[in-house]
Amino acid sequence: MNKYRTQYYDFGDLAIPNELMKCEEVLNDFGKWNSYKSIDQIIELYNVKRYIDSGIRLQKWTDEIYSVYQERAKTILGVIGRFFSTVELSEYAGLYKETDVLYKEIFWDIFAETKQYKKFDDASFEKMVFETGAPLRCILGQKETVARFGAVIRKYILEDVRNTEFLVSSFLEKREKPKQNYFLPKELTDSDKEILVQKYIDLPQPNMNYLELIAQEDNPDKLRLSDRTKFNAYKRLEKMRSEFLTSHRAIETTMGVSFRPMDGTGEIRYDISEPLKPLIEYDTVWLENNLDYATILQNFYWFEVVDLKSRCNLVSNESDLGIFDTVFGLHGRKEYATGQSFEIKNSFALLQIRGYYEFLKRHGVELESVYQWFFEVYLKEEFGIDGYVYDETSSNAKFGERNKLIVSKIDHVLKQFSLYCADLRIDREYLEFSSQQTNFSTVPSLVENKYAYCNDVKLKNEMYYLFSSQSMLTYLERLGKGYDSLFEMISKEKVYYKDFNEIQQTRIEYLLQRGAIIKCADGIILINKERLEILIQIYKKDFLCIAYENTESEPLNTLISQKELRFEKTLFSVPEQKYFNYLLNKAEFSNGLDLRNKYAHSTNSLDERTQYQDYLRLLLVMAIIIIKINEEFILKSKHEQHEKGGPV
Question: Which residues contact 368 (CB under 8 A, 6 or more apart)?
């Protein structure tokens, strides 16, 4: 008998048309189904039934033919049942071993759906499952089978310490696509899992990726681990990394920030003559001539901590994540995405703040004194905001003590701003009465509809086709080379509609309909620049600052009218909220640095260099908060001027 090797794929897979043609051959073999002797043929029938039941069909199938195929598909479970009725209990393991490797998981789907498990008792099922050596994913995907043979499956799981990798991957790892549901037997206790994981940690060579997930992740429902076990995984991971770096030659990369005398113009010099040793140089002559507090704060724009629209540049954006960041390695289900781009820009930011902090100290300026001036003097003199308090820190305080104070100040200044947003004044008595901790996501804004976010899958697809390196529109055969995005290709090449193949043209038509691109009379494809200016910001930054946009822009108003954007009135954008949560706590992200909680509860490192590094991070956080609050009052003032009809 022919084996057509029909595979079942989820809707939307490009392989489906080819698989449906195989289904057609199987369906036309209807008269021979009851004589099928191979388990692979039986599984093929099962796959055919799944396609027909899903409603997916070839365009060439007429309604009459499709109706015939539907009737034939209704008989498939009967054919499968008759096949298994001739199989003895002792033959199931051999039958599984005969199954094509691509069909082994489906074997267990059929085993469950046709209730073959009812033939077995614990002893016969244990004999069968241990003889097959079936992967856990095949067995744990079957709810009824797991419920019926829980004690046997518990024993099967605990038999092999490497099963830890499956449990960790299934219940602690982040997946872009929804994962299959796996069911653990109720007989498998938390203590069983803990012992199994600890045995894995103690293996001669556990996988470091799984150790990292064990150390940082948690899943209270499926894989609850004690702090001791997580700590053991962390220490083992540290040891293995140290041994790896000692025994393997690594490529050394360094980055530098230099503060030195130059020509006094304030020019920033970038030295990338050695790609693995980039250097940024700042002019101390200019800095020495600009030690007033306002300019000191303004210099955080100079350091590119924020952009000209006051958006924090240090956050992790989805568009910054490369294929190596997303595809390779394991990522925890609650992990903050720290790709290569994120690590580089945050490392540079730490070097910048360290160099600037030490430069200011040499010139008798405490950066926190500048912060205090902003809240207590500048806001009052510039905007008439009275009552803001920023507690002074002794210049003699050690960094551990400074950190404890500044994490409380972060909460304090945000509470004061929230009160001002609510009452247009800072009610000190109410502030002292309220004990609720500030959440970065709930700090309000003085600006209506401050941030806009993508709110529609059509807009998301449009940006993906335009800007993603993973889109199928980045390569043209005529050009003989690929680009990082369709946008880059069109910007650098003369591209014609006819250059794209049939599948690509469906995406091009989509972009034409959306107004993202324009097709000229001669077939040349151009970018709609006005729409691009909006989309590229949303794609690169994950949001749009409406206050800086032309509110009469047709593309912007179209997105708003079609409800493809959603608006929020918050001090921080969502990427900024996530970044602060990553730095300051672990409520949202399992790999968070947890600086606020560590210093608030005295569980911080006692190492002075680590405390200094933490202090620099916290100074950066406060600088960003100051920039965001200053922006609020500037935008509020401009809006009030506009309402009065005066110059903005």
Answer: 392, 393, 402, 406, 619, 622
pLDDT in tens, 384-428: 999 999 998 888 899 999 999 999 999 999 999 999 999 999 999
Q: State the burial class of residue 9 (Cβ atoms within 10 Å of its Cβ: 0-12, 13-18, 19+).
A: middle
Q: What does the block give as tokens for 250?
A: 């690594």
Q: Can you tell me the distance from the alpha carbon of 134 to that of 124, in angstroms, rounded to the nearest whole number?
A: 15
Amino acid at 441: S
398, 599 contact by CB (below 8 A): no
* DSSP calls for 243-277: HHHHHS-------EEEEE---SS---EEE-SSTTS
Question: Residues of the chain with pLDDT > 90: what percent?
Answer: 72
Distance CA 632, CA 450 (A): 10
Gap between the Cα atoms of 518 and 12, Å rounded: 27
User: What SS3 string covers 111-136?
Assistant: HHHCCHHHHCCHHHHHHHHHHHCCCH
Q: What is the residue whose two structure tokens read 């027909």?
A: 52
What span, in angstroms and rounded, lies between the C-alpha atoms of 6 and 43? 9
How many CB atoms lie under 10 A from the CB of residue 474?
19
Cα(526)–Cα(510) distance, integer angstroms: 14
**pLDDT tens across 541-563, in order?**
999 999 999 988 999 999 999 99
State which of 256-270, 324-338, 485-499 shows the largest mean pLDDT. 485-499
- pLDDT at residue 1, as a whole number: 42
- Tokens encoding 279: 């250097």
Which residues are CB-neighbours of 238 under 8 A, at least 6 positions away? none
Q: Which amino acid is at 304?
A: E
| Region 248-265 average pLDDT | 80
- In this structure, of 11-15, 24-28, 283-287, 603-607, the range with the lowest mean pLDDT score is 11-15
DSSP string, 183-246: ---TTS-HHHHHHHHHHHHTSSS--HHHHHHHHH--BTTTB---HHHHHHHHHHHHHHHHHHHH
| Residue 2 pLDDT greater than 70, yes or no | no
Nearest to 529 by CA among 517, 538, 537: 517
